[in-house]
Amino acid sequence: MSAVPEFPAYDPGFAAAAKGHRDTTGLPGFLGVEMSDVGPGRMRFSLEVRPELMNPFGVLHGGVISALADHALGAVCYPVIPQGTWAATTEYKLNLLAPVREGTVEAEAEIVSMTMRMAVVRIDIRNGDRLVALVQGTVVLKPPKG
Amino acid sequence: MSAVPEFPAYDPGFAAAAKGHRDTTGLPGFLGVEMSDVGPGRMRFSLEVRPELMNPFGVLHGGVISALADHALGAVCYPVIPQGTWAATTEYKLNLLAPVREGTVEAEAEIVSMTMRMAVVRIDIRNGDRLVALVQGTVVLKPPKG
Amino acid sequence: MSAVPEFPAYDPGFAAAAKGHRDTTGLPGFLGVEMSDVGPGRMRFSLEVRPELMNPFGVLHGGVISALADHALGAVCYPVIPQGTWAATTEYKLNLLAPVREGTVEAEAEIVSMTMRMAVVRIDIRNGDRLVALVQGTVVLKPPKG
Amino acid sequence: MSAVPEFPAYDPGFAAAAKGHRDTTGLPGFLGVEMSDVGPGRMRFSLEVRPELMNPFGVLHGGVISALADHALGAVCYPVIPQGTWAATTEYKLNLLAPVREGTVEAEAEIVSMTMRMAVVRIDIRNGDRLVALVQGTVVLKPPKG
Fold first, then answer.
1. Is A2 within the bounds of a domain?
2. Which chain B positions have a beta carbon within 8 Å of D91's beta carbon?
C-alpha cells in the first residue's frame, strides 16, 4: 500500500553538490539555513537558534519557522523537476506546536504527491527530539517559457 | 529522535468495543463511515464509494472526503482523553490530490502532538493504494464543566 | 486600492437560472443545500439545520460545514469561467468558530483572486448573525481537453 | 448581520504609542516591519521591498510574506487583550497569489472572531493595489500565570 511517488528526474549529482550548502545572503542567509541532507523527494534543513532570531519573550520568532518552511517547500522540488522549471510555493498551512528556546531547528521536507504541474509537500520541524511545527503545502511547477 | 506522543489514558477496552463500529444515522450514517481499526493515538476509517456520493462529473464529491476528515479528527482523540472531555475540531486544512471514482476510501488518522488542551492530527486518505487527500488539523480538548 | 478581480465571463443568464436551485440528490441533496443568491464572483448558499445533521452532542456535525464549504468553493467559479472548464477544488482550510444548534446556516463565497488556471476563494459561514466558520481555499480551473 | 466582535479591552493609548513603531532588531528588524496603523481589532503593517529580501529569481522571498504574517497575527491581538496575556500564534494558512518585485508590501490584519482563549485573524497582503497574499490563522491567548 505504498503512496510514495517516484522521482525519475532525480539528479544525484545535484544532490551531492547541494548537500551542506549554506546560504549567506538574503532571508535564508539571515536565518542561517543549511541544507543538511537530500534524497529523492526529500530534503533536510537546519538552522542554529541565536539571539537575533528570538522574539521579545525569549522564544524563537514564529516567522523564522514559517520562513524556513517556505524555503524548504520550493527547494525540495528542484532535484526532481526538469531543469529550467520553476517551483513556486502557492499555499501552505503551518501548525506551531511548541516554543523553541535554544539549540538547532531541523526541517525534514518530503514530497508526498507530485504531478507535472503540482507537488504537495509535508514538513516536520524539530528542536532536538521535540516536534515543534508541522507544515502541509502546495508548490506549482512552471515549465520554462518558449 | 522520536516525536510520537505517549497516550497514558489510552483505553484498549474502548478500542476493542469501537472497532468495526458503523454509524447508521446522521451524516456519518449517510456517508457509511466504518471505524475499521484503532490504536493508541490512531484510528482508521473506511467508506464505500457509491453512486449517491458522486458529483455530477462521476467523481466522489469532495465534501465526502472533508466530512470524513472532520469525523476522524475528533474521533481519534476519544480513546486517549479522560472520559467526559469533549474533543472539538477547531480547524483543519485539506489537500485533495486525485479524483476518486470507485472502490473504498480509507482514512488513517494519527495524533501527532497532544497537550492537556489541544491535539494536532494528521490524516492520510487513500483509494486503494493511491493517496487521494492529506489533512492537518487541530482539536480543542474541553474538560467537563463543574 | 481595490483588489477585487473582474469577471468578464460572468453570465447573468446562468446566474438567474441557478438562483434558488436546490439539490435533491447526492451529498448536497442530503445536506439540503440551496443556492440562495449569485453575483459576479460570489455565491450564497443556505441549509436548514435538522436532527439528521446533528452529532451525538446535539451540535451540527462539523462535516456538514466542511461539505457545504467544499460545494461552494467549486460552484462559485462556474458562472465566471468558460463553458466546459472544470472547477476542481484542490485545497482549503477551515476554522470552526462556534457550535451550531438550530436555524439556518448561510455560506457566502467570494472569489478573491483569479487567473486562467486558479481561483482563490474565501467563504464566511453564519448561523443567524453569528459567524460560525471561515474558509480559504484554492480551485484549479481545467479547460476542456482537445 | 454583523459578525464583527467587540473589543471592550481596546486601549487607544497603546494604539497611539504603537503607531509608526518600527522594529530595528531581530527578524522584524531585518525585514523592516513598520506598524503603520492600528484600530480596535485591526492593525496595518508595511515593509519596503529591497534587494536583500529577494530570492535568486528576483522575486520577494515567500518567507518574507509568511514571517510578516506571523508577526501580524500575534501583534493585532495585544491592544485588545488584558495586560500580561500572551498572544501565541498556533496555526495559520497562507495563499501566495502573485510575485512581488518592488515597492511596498502592506499587511492589513483583522480579528474576525475572539473568545477568552482564542482569536481567529485574517490578513490581506497587498503590493500597491494588487492582492498578493491571504492569511487565515489562530492565536491562543494565555493569561499570566499565578
1. no
2. 91, 138
